[in-house]
Amino acid sequence: MSSDSISRVAVASMVAGAAATAFVGPLQGARAPSHTTHTIQALRGNSQATQGLSLGTAAMGTAGLAAVASSLRKRSSRSARVARQQAPPSVVAERKVGDLSGALPDCPKTIWNADDIDIKKLPAVKKTAPLIIDAAELGDELQKGKEKEWVAAQKEKIMAQLQDHGAIWFRNFESTKQPDGFREFYEALELNPCLDPIHTSGLRAMEEKKHAVYEAVNKPSLAGHFVGLHNESTFVKTATYGAFVCFQKASEGGGEFLIADGAKILEDMDKDVLERIYKNKVRISVSNLDLNFLGSLPDGFRESASDFFQDLILKVVAPKFDMDLEMIYGADQSNPYRLQAIEHAQSPINKHPVTGQPVWFCNLHNHSRYLRDRRPCTVPEVGMTDVYSGDLSTIPYDDVRHINEVCEKNIHTMAMKEGDVVLLDNYRVLHGRNTFEGDRKHAVTWFESCGEPLSQNQQQKPDDFMNELINKTLV
Questions:
Q1: Fewest CB atoms less than 10 Å from the CB: which of 69, 181, 404, 415?
Q2: Which PANTHER family match (predicted)?
């Protein structure tokens, strides 16, 4: 998931603190499970792993952590039972109007079509991102004060262009400099907003709830962190479209928005490297919890303690997130007491659900520790993600360097100004963000579809508990 993926692992940090607080009493009567890895399965069926997870920090006192863990544990049994039930049939919902606070449908399920892709015979990419529509170049076609009407009249053409190019950069528009005007823009295109794929992670605060507008990694603590290319997606959920808007560019420079066409990345990649990673698949480690105190415990007690922490994280995290992770000690071979949450193996390539075009649908550029160690990074160890082959072996560094080179070759850097909007097809185009200085206010709204009617399962929609909690405590 995840993304500008910066905060989901904050939960893991909080869980570690809560677990440490609650450890002594429960552990004395704990029985060691018969296995040393556990699978977190919040959803069944197609649920395998999150793809958009990433990094973060949280500052919270011990008492606060214990309270959070207690609250989550009380709710976990009921939530887990609900998650195990078969999802009810979809219902038809009307277009949302007025105040959208608490009214957004959940993000739709990811559409996977990753089997039997012929790497040697990929179709050519005829058009690529971004297409630029500049209000200053439209002349008399765009009358002053009539931007919403112009967008509505051009809706079908704009959405067709989006499918061809993957992303459209709307420049020099005036009405989109404020949240209400931005909402008028996306409503003129009949885009239907939904929750972020990892809304409950607290990755983004909803700064304008009534307009379904999330902040886009503007926190000062993350200004010096480079956000690599990624789709805003998990294995379970993927927003169909996204619209990024600039309300205020970084006051002291930087913070440029980055995009890259996943179809072009695939086209430009060495086919041997591509064949190898497609065959081997990828697994993404989404967090590290260094439980080094376990090493000082006596034999026998240490094993029970290790299993206790695996169980605790399973019970606290699973009911709150759509994850399918294995909790594994020492997978990166750097620390036997490092507990890592690792996704199951998944394809780095997917076919676009509408066009069938194969695309690079993988967050390796953002999540690879090898690459992050060579970039500006301001997150703690708990937030350090990594990417492995499907069998948890190390992806050859030559392959990682090649993938990085191809991704960066295809990056388009966008120095957005106030009112600029980048509309993107989230299945085709990856995005990221450069480091910045000063104050910055970019925002994003995610969409499940274009046009009516909406077909959404409303009965298991995530709540705002974690989103609000983590954004209040995020440094």
A1: 415
A2: GAMMA-BUTYROBETAINE HYDROXYLASE-RELATED, TAUD_TFDA-LIKE DOMAIN-CONTAINING PROTEIN
Burial of 246 (C-beta count, 10 Å sphere; 0-12/13-18/19+): buried
Q: Which letter, b or e, does each residue of 418-435 get, where b requires 16 or more Cβ atoms within 10 Å of its Cβ?
A: bbbbbbbbbbbbbbbbbb
pTM value is 0.79
**What is the three-class DSSP state of 254?**
strand
Cα separation, 306 vs 329, in Å, equals 9
Residue 438: which residues within 8 A CB-CB, separation 6 or more? 250, 251, 252, 253
**Which helix (H) or strand (E) segment is 228 a member of?**
strand 227-230
Residue 261 makes CB contacts below 8 A (sequence gap 6+) with: 125, 128, 129, 166, 167, 410, 428, 429
Residue 348 CA: distances (Å) to CA of 117, 183, 271, 424: 11, 33, 14, 20
**What does the alpha-carbon distance between residue 209 and residue 132 come to, in Å, rounded to a whole number?**
29
* Other Cβ atoms closer than 10 A to 310: 20
Beta bridge partners of 230: 431
Q: Is 365 helix (H, G, I), strand (E, B) or coil?
A: helix
Residue whose entry in the numeric block shows the structure tokens 């606070």: 101
At 375, which helix (H) or strand (E)? none
Tens place of pLDDT for every residue, the chain, 475 residues? 444 344 444 444 444 444 444 333 333 333 333 333 333 333 333 333 333 333 333 323 333 333 333 443 444 333 333 333 333 333 344 556 788 988 899 999 999 999 999 999 999 999 999 999 999 999 889 988 899 999 999 999 999 999 999 999 999 999 999 999 999 999 999 999 999 988 876 666 888 999 999 999 999 999 999 999 999 988 888 999 999 999 999 999 999 999 999 999 999 999 999 999 999 999 989 888 899 999 999 999 999 999 998 888 767 765 565 667 788 999 999 999 999 888 889 999 999 999 999 999 999 999 999 999 999 998 888 888 999 999 999 999 999 999 999 999 999 999 999 999 999 999 999 999 999 999 999 999 999 999 865 554 444 555 554 445 444 444 4
Which candidate, 457, 13, 449, 439, places its Cα nearest to that of 215?
439
397: number of Cβ within 10 Å: 11
CA distance 115 to 259: 26
Residue 308's identity, in one-letter code, is: F
Q: What DSSP letter does each residue of 438-452 carry, written as one string?
A: S--EEEEEEEEEESS
Structural fold of domain 89-290+325-462: Double-stranded beta-helix (3.60.130)
H or E segment and range at residue 147: helix 147-153
DSSP bridge pairs for 431: 230, 259
